[in-house]
Design a protein that fits this description.
The chain has 190 residues and is mainly β. The protein has two helices and twelve strands, in the order E-E-E-E-E-H-E-H-E-E-E-E-E-E. It has two domains: 81 residues, Elongation Factor Tu (Ef-tu), domain 3 (Beta Barrel); 62 residues, Roll (SH3 type barrels). Helix content is 5%, strand content 40%.
């Protein structure tokens, strides 16, 4: 008997001439907000793995409506496992149909967003805001938001140099969505 009884893992070969489609998320639809990113198919009945992009898991309850590439789809069933949600969408009945959704965004209309407490904003509302100091100096625009264990960090580009601004009260002094501005007081070390 060999000392290491493990057997090598079997690898399924793809049929000749087939390639896996690239896993690239698509751009969102104007007037809609992404709540999930479709990954690989799961099983043979059309279920898909979805990376949630929302803090509201009730978005994925059976019967809920989601939009996929402009089409309204109702959720037939859902279940959570290890941070992913496995969904069955009405009208997606096969593994091939599920594969066609890979990389698509699951969206909801902006009008259907859950209300947030005062002082909290959705990411899509902050991205694109012009960043100014209290004195009026333009530093650029919020290009992306990085999540860290302690706080979010706004990546500001388009100014004299790229800035990383922590989203904390000592730095962010005002958010004016109507004016499209974020007023900050950069820390001296920045």
């Amino acid at each position: 008997m060999p000392e290491n009884p493990r057997r090598p893992r079997a690898v399924r070969a793809r049929p000749a001439g087939t390639r896996r489609r690239p896993y690239e998320p698509q751009t969102g639809t104007p007037g809609f907000v992404a709540v999930g990113l479709v990954g690989a198919p799961w099983g043979v009945r059309g279920d898909v793995k979805v990376q949630p992009l929302t803090d509201f898991p009730e978005r994925f309850q059976p019967g809920a409506a989601l939009w996929v590439r402009g089409d309204r789809r109702e959720l037939r069933r859902s279940r959570w496992s290890r941070g992913l949600v496995y969904l069955c969408l009405v009208g997606v009945e096969s593994r091939d149909a599920a594969e066609e959704l890979r990389g698509a965004l699951l969206e909801v209309p902006e009008a259907d967003l859950m209300p947030l407490p005062e002082g909290q904003y959705y990411r899509f509302q902050v991205i694109g805001l012009e960043v100014r100091t209290r004195e009026g100096t333009v530093l650029g625009r919020v290009a992306e938001i990085l999540s860290t264990p302690s706080n979010d960090v706004y990546v500001v580009r388009g100014g004299p140099r790229e800035l990383l601004l922590p989203a904390i009260e000592d730095v962010v002094k005002a958010v004016d969505l109507e004016a499209g501005q974020l007023v900050v007081e950069p820390l001296p070390e920045l």
